[in-house]
Amino acid sequence: MSELLQTPLHDLHVSLGAKMVPFAGYAMPVQYGLGVMKEHLHTRAKAGLFDVSHMGQVKVAGEDAAAALETLIPVDIAGLAKDRQRYGFFTDQNGGILDDLMLANRGDHIFVVVNAACKAADIAHMKTHLEPDVSVTPITGRALLALQGPSAEAVLTALNPAAKDMSFMDVATLDLNGSDCWVSRSGYTGEDGYEISVPAEDAVELAEALLAHEDVEPIGLGARDSLRLEGGLCLYGHDITTETTPVEAALTWAIQKVRRQGGDRTGGFPGADEILSQITDGVSRKRVGLVPAGRAPMREGVVLFADEESTAPIGTITSGGFGPTVGGPVAMGYVSVDHATIGTTLYGELRGKRLPLQVAKMPFTPANFKR
Amino acid sequence: MKFTEEHEWLRPEGDVIVVGITEHATTQLGDIVFVELPEVGTTVSKDDEIVVIESVKAASDILAPLDGEIIEVNEALGDNPALPNEDATGEGWFFKMKASDPSQMDSYMDEAAYKALID
Asked: At what angle do helices A221-230 and A36-45 cross, to 10 degrees?
């Protein structure tokens, strides 16, 4: 793994007994001693600490930074209140998704967090289209931690009481363990929690301070994946790609009315014609939740059919596996809209057999956000 | 008891051979959440993929270690697929088979050789 990048927490992961694997060019912990199942359940019961330092942190600054970003992202950024965060995505000319991301209004800049595998492309994309009117500055000297689960509030409040006053999607600069941290009340597990950008040189000490709480365990990428799957949250490169539009991906909720047809700042982003007409006219396929009837997990790539005999597929699974909290298999995928109604029985072809599964509401486990 | 390079163990019990996977294998796989077993009475050839194991991470196949017939499968794995995680060489067995050529067993490792392989 010598050519892999390491996060500031690398040695801590190794000392905690993590199994390290290559992920998006980094050596990352896939699991620790508890294993994926127990790590997942612990996060939902108490709190888990995740190292997400491989993700890209970017400052976009300048008088018109919000307006500039709106030329690349179909989201209301100019209307985002100071110290509030929102989910979004870069789109391409065809309406496909280049990456999904988080945007926070920090007053004098917009703070953007993007996926590790896409960060070089995302930064180049922003620099090409936005500079020199606004500045695009990758933040390389900071780690990113996620503290997730019902105990997260109590754990972080012990380090700074102001953590308690934050609502879901609030952002703030907080002193944690003597270090200036950029904190958001958010995450990607379906649980309440925080994401914490911390100077790299303070990251290990902060992680150790959080892990010192009896409710906190370190959690690897394996459980991060099963948690976000149960949460009905998309994984870029799998559930959303340049081949899927936000409307097909059931992410229309993230495109505020002001950017849609008839809105004050309608369109003006790549693929706007396609995306806005899809919002009005509908799409032929969409992303849905799927619950296999049996115990066998159905994973990415499983082809879906309307019945046991038909030869024409009506969809494909894009993420799937065992949901530890659900206690059984769960999946998501794209199906033609005539088969997308909740409760519809479909069949997935698994090892030559057609096995039933049902279109289901997401998330598969109730979200525990502090609104 | 004999061991394969695929991390299966084979334990002769009379004229029957009990097959499972090693503790090393279950540790590598992680928590097992589903096991698909062959049907009793199936005739298998060595290296046929006859069991599918799904862990929280991925699906993997177990190969028939010998030519022969499946004469019993561990039905308890239906209710508790994690049995191999808990007791790999005991309660967590997968199937019992009758070998058509028991001498095929000779090519497999003894415990010392297997331990050397995984160390």
From this structure: 60
The domain spans of chain A are 10-53+141-230, 284-371
Q: Are A23 and A4 in contact (CB under 8 A)?
A: no
Instruction: Note the pLDDT of residue A1.
Output: 45
pLDDT of A2:
57
Domains of chain B: residue spans and CATH = 2-101 (2.40.50.100)
Amino acid at position A243, single letter:
E
CATH code for A284-371?
2.40.30.110
pLDDT band of residue B57 (cuts 50, 70, 90) is: confident
In chain B, residues 58-77 whose CB comes closer than 8 Å to chain A? 58-59
Residue B33 near chain A (CB below 8 Å): yes
The answer to whether residue A82 scores a pLDDT higher than 70 is yes
- List of chain B residues whose C-beta atoms are within 8 Å of the C-beta of residue A329: 33-34
Beta-strand pair A26-31/A19-23: antiparallel
Question: What's the CATH code, domain A10-53+141-230?
Answer: 3.30.1360.120
Question: Would you call B54 and A31 a contact, using CB atoms and an 8 Å cutoff?
Answer: no
Q: Report pLDDT digits (tens) over A32-62.
A: 999 999 999 999 999 999 999 999 999 999 9
Residues B23, A141: Cα–Cα separation, whole Å? 42
Q: How far is A199 from chain B (nearest CA, A)?
A: 32
